[in-house]
Amino acid sequence: MKAFQDYYPEELSHCYGCGSQNPQGHQLKSYWDGDTTVAWFTPEAYHTAIPGYVYGGLIASLIDCHGTGTAAAAAYRAAQRDMGSEPALRFVTASITVDYLAPTPMGEELELRGEVLEIGERKVITQIEVKAAGKACARGIVIAVKMPAGMLPAKN
Amino acid sequence: MKAFQDYYPEELSHCYGCGSQNPQGHQLKSYWDGDTTVAWFTPEAYHTAIPGYVYGGLIASLIDCHGTGTAAAAAYRAAQRDMGSEPALRFVTASITVDYLAPTPMGEELELRGEVLEIGERKVITQIEVKAAGKACARGIVIAVKMPAGMLPAKN
Prior knowledge:
Oligomer: homodimer
Largest sheet of chain A: 6 strands, antiparallel
Low-confidence stretches of chain A: none
Strand order of the largest sheet of chain A: 1-2-4-5-6-3
Number of helices of chain A: 1
Strand content of chain A: 25-35%
Number of strands of chain A: 6
Shape of chain A: globular
Distance between the termini of chain A: 27 Å
């Protein structure tokens, strides 16, 4: 199964959170699961906050990338287009809110579940829930907008 | 000048974003500047989003740590206590919102400015602005709460 991020064009695959071309990054991978989206990530030992718990900034980062990935996938679906087809639909984050519901324990694989709350031509709003060992630890809202043309890097 | 984070007790200094005891982390340092707080951070080349721009998850992480640091410093000030004095006042993030105002260019030192919007016994709300080359790129609101006693690790 190919992840959303594996369809991103090479020049847009350097994101620290989810770019397949960023060896130092988190390389998050997001997938459809029916009408929701899902991603998994196991934090490293150094991704700590208070010892024993996962760093909230990492959780926000994962929510961010799963949110923009879900936005792109949902935009392709709405347009009845394959994710690999050109022109690429790529979204950037306009705003993110994360509520930390409970301390996130270390040593667990985190599950991120995404849901599309609103989809328009230019803007997609998603809700992402993060669970550890089956318990909801954080919930985020990501407002993603189509990447401005001026941000697009030149193709190699 | 000693940073807020350098007053955190050793057992609370492992945070990936700002812990002095986390060699793999960002080691953000926050300071008072009159009634506002300030921190600086230069992203690494791999902290990229779209090439040429800084990863939004990193920006959220810096806002998070500068927000909780500002909350702690403000709580000590409100109590007219030195930051090194016991018992330690340490805050964790209950909620964070980040609005990305403009793409953040790579290759610039980022300046974070913090302002206390609300301070209570248990909860401190701060606003953090992130500037690159003098231009505001992101603005965050961090709702920080006193660390629950149950999260406190044992002292070494």
